[in-house]
Specification:
heterodimer; A: 351 residues; alpha+beta; two-stranded antiparallel sheet; 13% strand; rod-shaped; B: 246 residues; alpha/beta; five-stranded parallel sheet; five-stranded antiparallel sheet; 8 helices; elongated
């Protein structure tokens, strides 16, 4: 943020122009108030303000050390004042040296000195204060635009993530096979077909268009998963059974929307499609005052299966948890004795 | 009447096909199977003229089932969603049905299949159908048949593929299995950088190699962890160097 001097390139011209205008006005004022010639008062003003202008440019480089970013407010104000006073002092000293060199024979009268000295001190202080204020305004402006850009980037990345997640969540097989099941039921059992359409509609109403960063009570998540599993059960019949068993006290615990969906999809993929046996998926939930623990397990057949990494679906769940709770290791996977288990830890979010 | 076998793992999907077939007196449904294992057995023993086949099924998918049967029935694929396969179906299968489908669409598929059965030209060889349908897709297991037994071999544990005429001998955890396939076709199916074709007749799992020794000026020998020795040709040696990065 402090890297590049804001007064560079064509800004230098503007900086110089403002100083010239100021010095001109100042000289006119001095010439009018005293009986000095315009040239002499011009040289006197210029010899002072040219140093103020120079110090003003250099002040930028002191800001990183003085700003409230690293200092307490009072220390920051005091150090800015000290620096400004130093600039003023050196400008006065230097301007006197220049004046005695340029106007050696000039006779400064007392009345004029009495006017010029305080005028330079007050004018110089105000100018330095203006320069510092300008720097902070510019910094603030660049900070605001950087902040807006960062926010935009964050939103974009979140959107992409959301899209990727939705894509992985609603498996096309699920949609088309469910529709095919309905097609079949319309012939054999129209009542069941109607029921299935309603379930499917409820499921999509709930899952589409939800903000994945939002939380909802565990109760709602479990209702939603029951809906999903009931739809799948119509397709797979007795091959699929499930149990959702969470402590009554935990049902209001806030958890991310549709967090469990990819886990169930994974369980069905491996439980139904990678073995001939029936699959049973069970969920257990318990909580203490700090965290909710969810355990989802299903039987699977590990013979004839390659030792592959965990699927995109599981990775997404883990990624989402770490994004929301800013903590890794909230998901653990266990495979033992043909049982696949996922342990989730859901902390309480301080919002 | 055309003898037909239906293979689909979902009961409602089977019920739908059955009810549609009941209305068609050209078709005689002689078996209905819930998975690929039963399907393969039914096809081998009943030799149907037409097979209606789901792709996504437990343990043994539709393509894997086709790989292990010797019969060449006319095929109608029925699937919910399969981007890769659709083009291939168009080229090689009698027809394909995307779930859900209408009764008219189903009838069109059956009409096409009956025309194919009645045409005396032989159905396209199963392996070309399967190869086309799976082009571009990598597998992580190989299915072989030993008599009536169907065995699924995860590729991690396969150390060596050895060409033997029209067959490939697969070395898996000390046992050998024969499968009717070419090494070239296997090379396409297997994930890259896991197996290396070291010789015209040999393809090695890189994790099974213990060491490589020079044999003559231009040839080498790979010694596997089970001490067997496999010849490595000059081009095979270059391929090994590329994959193993030495």
């Amino acid at each position: 943020m402090f890297s590049k001097h804001p007064i560079s390139g064509k800004h230098i011209l503007w900086y110089m122009l403002s100083w010239i205008v100021y010095i001109l006005l100042h000289s006119c004022f001095v010439a009018w108030q005293t009986d000095t010639s315009l040239l002499a008062s011009g040289i006197i003003s210029l010899s002072f303000y040219i140093f103020v202008a120079g110090f003003g440019l250099m002040l930028w480089f002191t800001l990183p050390f003085l700003s409230t970013q690293y200092q307490r407010l009072i220390v920051s104000i005091l150090s800015h004042t000290v620096i400004a006073a130093l600039c003023l002092y050196f400008s006065l000293e230097l301007s006197e040296m220049v004046q005695s060199y340029l106007l050696p024979s000039y006779n400064f009268d007392v009345q004029m000195m009495l006017l010029i000295q305080p005028l330079h001190i007050i004018g110089g202080s105000l100018c330095i204060a203006m320069v510092i204020a300008t720097y902070y305004l510019l910094l603030f402006k660049s900070f605001l635009s950087a902040e807006a850009k960062r926010k935009q980037e964050l939103e974009d990345s979140l959107k992409n993530f959301e899209l990727a997640l939705l894509k992985s969540q609603i498996n096309p097989h699920f949609i088309f096979n469910s529709l095919n099941t309905i097609s079949s039921l319309t012939i054999s059992a129209p009542d069941q077909a109607r029921e299935m359409v309603v379930k499917l509609a409820d499921f999509f109403r709930f899952s589409l268009g939800k903000n994945i960063m939002k939380l909802h009570p565990l109760r709602e998540e479990l209702d939603q998963m029951a809906l999903y599993l009931e739809i799948e059960k119509v397709r797979f019949g007795d091959r699929l059974s499930f149990k959702l068993d969470a402590d009554e006290t935990c049902l209001d615990w806030p958890i991310p929307n549709m967090l469990l969906q990819p886990l169930y999809e994974n369980a069905i993929k491996y439980g139904i499609y990678e073995q001939l046996e029936d699959v049973h998926i069970s969920l257990k939930g318990s909580c203490n005052k700090d965290q909710l623990q969810l355990t989802i397990s299903n039987n699977f057949d590990d013979s004839g299966m390659a030792k592959k990494g965990n699927g995109i679906g599981l990775q997404n769940v883990s990624k989402r948890l770490s994004l929301i709770y800013a903590s890794s290791n909230l998901m653990a996977i266990e495979k033992a004795n043909n049982v696949f288990t996922i342990h989730l830890k859901i902390p309480k979010l301080n919002r | 009447m055309i003898t037909t076998v239906l293979i689909d793992d979902e009961a409602p999907a089977r019920a739908l096909v059955q009810s549609l077939l009941e209305q068609d007196d050209r078709i005689s449904l002689i078996a209905t199977c819930e998975n690929g294992f039963d399907g393969a057995r039914a096809i081998q023993t009943l030799r149907p003229q037409l097979v209606l086949l789901d792709i996504q099924m437990p343990k043994l998918n539709g393509f894997e089932m086709l790989e292990i049967i010797d019969e060449h029935p006319v095929l109608i694929f029925i699937t919910a969603y399969d981007q890769f396969a659709i083009q291939a179906f168009e080229a090689n299968a009698a027809d394909y049905l995307l779930k859900p489908y209408s009764a008219e669409r189903f009838k069109t598929a059956i009409d096409k299949a009956i025309a194919k059965v009645n045409a005396l030209e032989p159905a396209p060889a199963i392996d070309t159908v399967v190869a086309a349908a799976q082009s571009g897709q990598k597998t992580d297991r190989i299915v072989v048949r030993n008599g009536a037994k169907i065995i699924i071999l995860p590729i991690d544990n396969i150390s060596l593929f050895e060409a033997d005429g029209d067959y490939v001998r697969i070395h898996h955890e000390g046992e050998k299995h024969l499968k009717q396939i070419t090494l070239k076709r296997l090379e396409e199916k297997l994930p890259e950088n896991m197996f290396v074709r070291v010789h015209r007749s040999y393809m090695l799992n890189i994790t099974s190699i213990a060491r490589i020794e020079a044999y003559s000026k231009d040839t080498y020998i790979a010694i596997l962890k089970d001490q067997s020795k496999i010849p490595v040709s000059r081009t095979g040696y270059i391929a090994l160097r590329n994959v193993l990065d030495f």
